[in-house]
């Protein structure tokens, strides 16, 4: 029997858990003042909290705010402290709280805004802020001893010296070093050396002023190089510089430097302003970005909880299928990718798997299974994208090996190969070894994962000595301890998360395109579909362990909007029709290829994208397909775009859009599945709003969310339209709302209705409300999901509906005893027959008579 976890939310502290959140993405185009204008709308919609993207000072022009450059200042591009105070007043007046996204893993370092980084560049390891960044000051590269590599040059270093791309500049009475347009600070040593070249006599001859000295230095590559080498950083060519990096970064983004939040002083500095907002009541909860990048996630979360003891805290922890969240973490749950994938699987028919797999292999020529795809991409990431991180870890492993007589004979090449194979064999984002100061054993679950990974690596590297993997396993299991050994384990854990993210989310999801509805963060594209029984079991566990966890269907990082996935899911119900359509379209578009470009996989992605997001403009699909091609990294990539391939892809798509016969065929096919897709969307929405957890609405997705990946899903939202439709929704019947489905009205109407019931009955749907599956009898029982929350609310949604045409026959939900009414249509329920429950609207929310009559 599943036991409630220690520290789980009880009735006494469940008030900290939001009823429902609404995500807002702040940037220069959407400011604090803009948010103020939305507060009455969000109140009427029914949410209890605004969930804001980071509000701290970010790099100038940031579109997202995750490149924070100053933790101690509100982002001036979003507004002033007075603007923030007024937003707080407006939110409080409408009884809406604020959840803040915090970024403890990294900082933006491009531009002049990061005081910590610039001070470190000026004074090197002697800077008091050097402790903030994870820098290898003792790099084995002789050029980087005591220096930081800066991959910012647009050409080779020697060419930059000759052509003046690197030059000293006199600015405001001081000196700076201009490197490819970036202004960098100059070390005191170099300043002194330059000043010594200025004559000390009373009359300085023309050309011998400091400006003249600088001009002379800039015109002499040898003198320029001498002074550049006096800096505490080394500017290098960006195309080769990534391989030479000696500071930890966020994934592969060199302009985001990892910070050492495990240092208590760094934590205090980074959370000084957030702590003030928490204590003043301006911020009610926190969403923690990328905790797997931290050296000690649990230790960080314990410290965070100490400054926010009464706050709702969720973590952006990506859980693979079946992976649990660590019950020792003092948080309320995840940001909801686990929910997204589990609820999405309900609407996919697993019986289509063989047909779809066989056709995908036939059409694209790709016969490699998903697991093989992932392993190959992990090796690519380790070898190419994360080369400096892999190199640093290999060097550390070599130092450790040299200290143990039984391991001293292993070569760097052997150590590197074993390390890469073990990292590639990790089935999860990372493990969580104890802190370096903690002598306790590693957790049993993590020990199993590590043993499995080293066993998988052994099987792949039978040419390597078995003792090498024994040695690596002992290190990772904390059976060989020491400063270097512990550092290796912790850095290995910080590496495997980025490897998984870049290999899976940012590569394999674009190279394995069998069924794109499954290719979502935290998802498993190799598994088609979940049964209602699977979902019930998952929800029961969630309610027992993590009732305050977030439930999301779209986020700022999803590959496709929730309603795109819901529509694509319908294809699993008609695989024969889908396959026939793709064959027909491919024949029609055969002549549009050039030199067999684009490849068949890209073509298959194109057809799925059209069907899933229809209607969409040529500009949107071109941007989405270019991103998909570059993320796949097979024919082009972000690092070195291949113009010939991208031109062929662009021309193919443009020609297809200009082919009226093809576009009419696509439109006709979409019309065949459109209503079934909308029904899936409404079912998904109602489950999100009533199942265990905190429902989150991504900005704009109260109407149909047909967005594609970033930046498509971060386009400005038409809130004026949504305000108008929300006003209309208050006067519409269920049937009238459904008739206006082309506008997205049914989704907005459903959200408003359901959140109103949650507002009236917070205990029923909240952390203390039970979750009980309800049996469904009849011929089509497997096409229904039904569950009860608390003692008085029942959710009923259909699934796999395309072939039913509304004929439910004898299908009936077994309702608990009592008198029930359908809260969506304000009518009593005589029976649990699906024909009655969904006759006027595709989904049903039932309440016991007498429930919801008084607002709470």
Tell me what you see in this structure:
With 856 residues, the protein is an alpha/beta fold. It contains 31 helices and 26 strands. It has an eight-stranded parallel beta sheet with strand order 16-15-14-5-2-1-18-17. The chain has a six-stranded antiparallel beta sheet with strand order 19-21-22-26-24-25, covered by helices on one side. Strands 6-13-12 form a three-stranded antiparallel beta sheet, with no helix packed on it. Helix 16 packs across helix 17 and helix 17 packs antiparallel against helix 18 (466-476). The radius of gyration is 29 Å and the shape is globular. The two termini are 33 Å apart.
Strand residue content: 5-15%
Poorly predicted runs: 202-207
Fraction in helix: 40-55%
What average pLDDT do the residues reach? 94
CA-CA gap between termini: 33 Å
The largest sheet, given as strand count, sense and whether it forms a barrel, is:
8 strands, parallel
Rg for CA atoms: 29 Å
Structural class call reads alpha/beta
Separate helix tally: 31
Q: Order of strands across the widest beta sheet?
A: 16-15-14-5-2-1-18-17
Number of strands: 26
- Name the overall outline: globular
Task: Give a concise summary.
The protein is α/β, with parallel strands linked by helices.
Provide keyphrases for this structure.
single chain, 856 residues, alpha/beta, eight-stranded parallel sheet, six-stranded antiparallel sheet, 31 helices, 26 strands, 44% helix
Strand and helix map with partners:
Blueprint: E1 21-24, H1 32-45, E2 49-52, E3 56-58, E4 68-74, H2 81-93, E5 97-102, E6 106-108, H3 115-123, E7 148-153, H4 157-163, E8 166-171, E9 174-179, E10 182-185, H5 188-196, H6 210-218, H7 221-228, E11 233-237, H8 238-241, E12 249-250, E13 253-258, H9 264-270, H10 272-280, E14 285-288, H11 297-307, E15 312-315, E16 333-334, H12 337-345, H13 353-364, H14 370-385, H15 387-402, H16 412-424, H17 444-460, H18 466-476, H19 483-511, H20 532-545, E17 550-551, H21 562-569, H22 575-589, H23 600-613, H24 618-632, H25 643-657, H26 660-690, E18 694-698, H27 719-729, H28 734-739, H29 745-760, H30 762-765, E19 771-773, E20 776-777, E21 784-789, E22 793-798, E23 812-813, E24 820-822, E25 827-829, H31 834-837, E26 844-848
Helix pairs in contact: 1-2, 13-22, 14-15, 14-16, 14-19, 15-16, 15-19, 16-17, 17-18, 19-24, 21-23, 21-26, 22-26, 23-24, 24-25, 26-29, 27-29
